[in-house]
Write a structure and sequence with these properties.
The chain has nine helices and eight strands. Helix 4 packs across helix 6. With 273 residues, it is an alpha/beta fold. Strands 1-2-4-3-5-6-7-8 form an eight-stranded mixed sheet, sandwiched between helices. The two termini are 33 Å apart. It has one domain: Rossmann fold (3-Layer(aba) Sandwich), CATH 3.40.50.1820.
Length: 273
């Protein structure tokens, strides 16, 4: 299996399919590059070099105790991009991965990055505060940490319901999709899963978003129960210089079913421009 070893000795797993202009996909918490299997094939079939990695602590990458923070995630991504010498790069990030690609592009990307696509992404900041009243209360985030620490297996099963909107009337999400969420979550070591909650919820990406000079496509479902659109995409669209906001009616946080087909069609259309 392909790996790179970062400067701090962490092994980062990645997978790639196809050839052509590169597209790098960054997954959400607590998932892995497996979350992008459909997109990897679609992009490769469309003539692109599709690449997805497992964030440190997640999937097949090193089970890290240290470095489970957004600055380190972005540096890991920079080392992967440099190792593969990716140019004219499109970055796609879901949820936590949206924060990761934004920070990477703003602080490390330089001339390598051509376009950014985010989906259900955490920027500008997820945590509720006096200046971000639409955000998620610290108590809810503490509950996530407690769930991971106490019984992460059951917690991931429970979380999959809101993640995919399975708790909404008319939901068509399969048991298999929820089981796969659980499977990927169980691959994250406990320390990395626990620490990543702070990384995705308390990191402020405001200045990163303002620094971006490339086009940014901001995709978000208006029924996202994990990363509320009012605290995320709606604010991100106001902060980036060249942003396009696309709201998917009724879409949950998890990319699945008809909403996945719609997002994938939009991604391929953007890349064809």
């Amino acid at each position: 299996m392909p790996y790179i070893t970062t400067t701090d000795g962490t092994e980062i797993y990645y997978t790639e399919q196809g050839s052509g202009k590169p597209v790098l996909l960054s997954h959400g918490w607590p998932l892995s590059s497996d979350a992008w299997q459909t997109e990897l094939k679609l992009l490769a079939d469309a003539g692109f070099r599709a690449i997805a990695h497992d964030r440190r602590g997640h999937g097949r990458s090193s089970k890290t105790y240290v470095g489970n923070d957004m600055d380190t995630y972005a540096r890991d991504l920079a080392e992967l991009v440099e190792a593969l010498d990716l140019q004219d790069l499109t970055l796609i990030g879901h949820s936590t991965g949206g924060g990761e690609v934004v920070r990477y592009a703003a602080q490390h990307g330089g001339s390598r990055v051509a376009r950014i696509i985010t989906a259900g992404a955490v920027p500008p900041i997820m945590l509720k505060s006096d200046t971000n009243p639409e955000g998620t209360p610290i108590e809810a985030l503490d509950d996530i940490r407690a769930g991971v620490l106490t019984d992460r297996s059951q917690f991931y099963k429970d979380l999959s319901e809101a993640f995919f909107g399975a708790n909404r009337e008319g939901s068509a999400v399969s048991q298999g999709a929820k089981d796969d969420f659980w499977r990927q979550g169980m691959l994250v070591n406990l320390a990395a899963a626990y620490d990543c909650v702070k990384a995705f919820s308390e990191t402020d990406f405001t200045e990163d978003l303002k620094a971006l000079t490339v086009p940014v496509f901001i995709a978000h479902g208006d029924d996202d129960q994990i990363v509320p659109i009012a605290a995320a995409a709606l604010k991100t669209a106001e902060l980036v210089a060249h942003g396009t906001l696309k709201v998917y009616p009724g879409a949950p946080h998890g990319i699945y079913g008809d909403h996945q087909k719609a997002l994938d069609a939009d991604i391929l259309a953007l890349l064809a421009e």
